[in-house]
């Protein structure tokens, strides 16, 4: 698969619509492509926000109108077109901009319906509100007109990108392929204030694949860098382990 083809897979990757071979290839590509890392994070945040949209019941008379119209439509036999298999592209599906938007809306909507149908309403509401706040805060920084980014390789071999908006005084960390922390541990983020590490929050649980997007807690201020350490659950007041990654903030 060429690099140009890999660039087209961000939407399918965000929706977990790739097969194992494609996903492995795209994971390797993400490790060296900050642009795709940012795009996957934006699409993932968009899908999360779409999934939290409230639904409204259709008017009772709508079903009757639809069923009447269906009965009035003349059915025609399907049209078939022979396809030369030798001319088929290597990858069967391609997402255009409109198709991608539709897939995001449908997939996110189905996920939202499943949550509300199978979980206690109050717990689902709280989780939905928290997810909405996280997605909105990440999207706000990524979409800021003055957003600047800086990338670096972590000790695990995965790639991290920090995006900073000076006007918002906020930062977002994007981590591609970051492995899950050891059992009973969490990843904690830190701002580097001239050699003094200031906690920027604990990362939510990770599945160890895909792209993690987290807004750092607190203002950027005069910080010159960002660090990631492995800490006990709930985090620490100061780093208790060597950092697995240090990133300079973009100028």
Explained architecture:
Strand 2 (159-165) and strand 3 form a beta hairpin. The protein is α+β, with helices and mostly antiparallel strands. It folds into two domains: 3-54 and 94-142, no CATH class; 148-248. The strands form two sheets. A four-stranded antiparallel beta sheet has the order 1-2-3-6, covered by helices on one side. The protein has a four-stranded antiparallel beta sheet with strand order 5-4-7-8, with no helix packed on it. Residues 83-98 have low confidence and may be disordered. The chain has helices spanning 3-7, 10-14, 20-30, 34-51, 60-72, 97-118, 121-142; strands spanning 148-153, 159-165, 170-176, 186-193, 196-202, 211-215, 225-231, 245-248. Helix 4 (34-51) packs across helix 6 (97-118) and helix 4 (34-51) packs antiparallel against helix 7. InterPro entries: Anti-sigma-K/W_factor, Anti_sigma_zinc_sf, RskA_C, RskA_N. It comes from Streptomyces griseus. This is Regulator of SigK. The chain crosses the membrane at residues 95-116.
């Amino acid at each position: 698969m060429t690099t140009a083809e890999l660039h087209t897979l961000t939407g399918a990757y965000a929706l977990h619509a790739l097969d194992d071979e494609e996903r492995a290839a795209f994971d390797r590509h993400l490790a060296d492509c900050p642009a795709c890392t940012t795009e996957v994070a934006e699409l993932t945040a968009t899908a999360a926000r779409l999934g939290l949209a409230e639904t409204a019941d259709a008017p009772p008379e709508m079903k009757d109108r639809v069923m009447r119209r269906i009965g009035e439509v003349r059915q025609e036999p399907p049209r078939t077109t022979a396809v030369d298999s030798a001319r088929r592209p290597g990858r069967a599906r391609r997402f255009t901009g409109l198709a991608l938007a539709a897939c995001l809306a449908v997939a996110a909507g189905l996920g939202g319906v499943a949550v509300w149908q199978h979980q206690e309403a109050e717990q689902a509401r709280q989780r939905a509100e928290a997810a909405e706040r996280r997605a909105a805060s990440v999207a706000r920084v990524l979409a800021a007109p003055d957003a600047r980014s800086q990338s670096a390789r972590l000790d695990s071999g995965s790639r991290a990108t920090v995006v900073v908006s000076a006007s918002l005084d906020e930062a977002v960390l994007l981590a591609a392929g970051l492995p899950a922390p050891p059992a009973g541990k969490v990843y904690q983020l830190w701002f580097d204030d001239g050699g003094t590490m200031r906690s920027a929050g604990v990362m939510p649980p990770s599945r160890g694949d895909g792209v993690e997007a987290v807004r750092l807690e607190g203002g950027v201020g005069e910080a010159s860098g960002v660090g990631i350490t492995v800490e006990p659950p709930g985090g620490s007041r100061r780093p208790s382990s060597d950092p697995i990654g240090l990133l300079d903030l973009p100028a």
